[in-house]
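Support request from a user on the community tier.

User writes: "When I paste my structure tokens into the form, the page sometimes reloads and wipes my input. The last time it worked, I copied everything first. Here is what I submitted, just in case something in the input itself triggers the reload:"
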């Protein structure tokens, strides 16, 4: 797979649809080999490949850097957790798993309420499920939860007076991510993982026919 031909929109869609529960790569592999890209095309391809392959490591690293910046501000830590959760809701796999676990927990106390939290049925067009579907969380569209959690986190950021701190911490975290993705040489595992994900996408599209 030529990552140089992958657009930023394609990369965002892939990160949104990928399985969120994939474990992080081992630290020896994460900090294994670094080289300077020889050209802009090489750097562009390497950046996208590493962002996809080490996505879980980068997410954990960003959360840790944000957490270190707010050790003395409990309200800011809560705001950071809600912000991370609202971002995680954008991933289809995480949103579906979160909704399923919450519904399963509610069913133990109120089966009637849990029945209302089921997602609506996928519309069927000409005997086949519609390819375009809206992700639901606990029976509500995903954007409702993203809006609520984002709004609450913004209020907490404002109350804790840590907005400038989070901007600095976020800038450092993003800079560290970009630097690592730019200089970490993609290994054979990354390339094989790329081909495997590409095969899964092709097979998924074929099975929908």
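"...and here is what came back when it finally went through:"
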């Amino acid at each position: 797979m030529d990552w140089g031909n992958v657009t930023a929109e394609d990369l965002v869609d892939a990160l949104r649809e990928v399985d969120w529960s994939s474990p992080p790569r081992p630290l020896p592999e994460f900090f294994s080999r670094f080289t300077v890209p020889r050209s802009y095309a090489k750097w562009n391809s390497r950046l996208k490949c590493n962002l996809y392959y080490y996505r879980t490591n980068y997410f954990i690293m960003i959360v840790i850097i944000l957490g270190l910046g707010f050790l003395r501000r409990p309200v800011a830590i809560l705001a950071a957790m809600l912000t991370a959760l609202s971002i995680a809701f954008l991933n289809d796999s995480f949103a579906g798993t979160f909704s399923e676990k919450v519904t399963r927990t509610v069913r133990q106390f109120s089966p009637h309420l849990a029945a209302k939290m089921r997602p609506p049925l996928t519309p069927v067009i000409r005997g086949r499920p519609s390819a375009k579907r809206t992700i639901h969380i606990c029976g509500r569209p995903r954007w409702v939860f993203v809006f609520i959690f984002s709004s609450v986190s913004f209020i907490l950021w404002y109350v804790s007076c840590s907005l400038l701190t989070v901007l600095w911490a976020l800038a450092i975290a993003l800079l560290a991510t970009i630097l690592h993705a730019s200089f970490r040489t993609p290994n054979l595992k990354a390339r094989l993982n790329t081909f495997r994900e590409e095969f899964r996408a092709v097979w998924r599209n074929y099975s929908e026919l």
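Agent notes: The reload is a front-end session timeout and is unrelated to the input. The mean pLDDT is 77. The longest helix spans residues 163-183. Escalated to web team.
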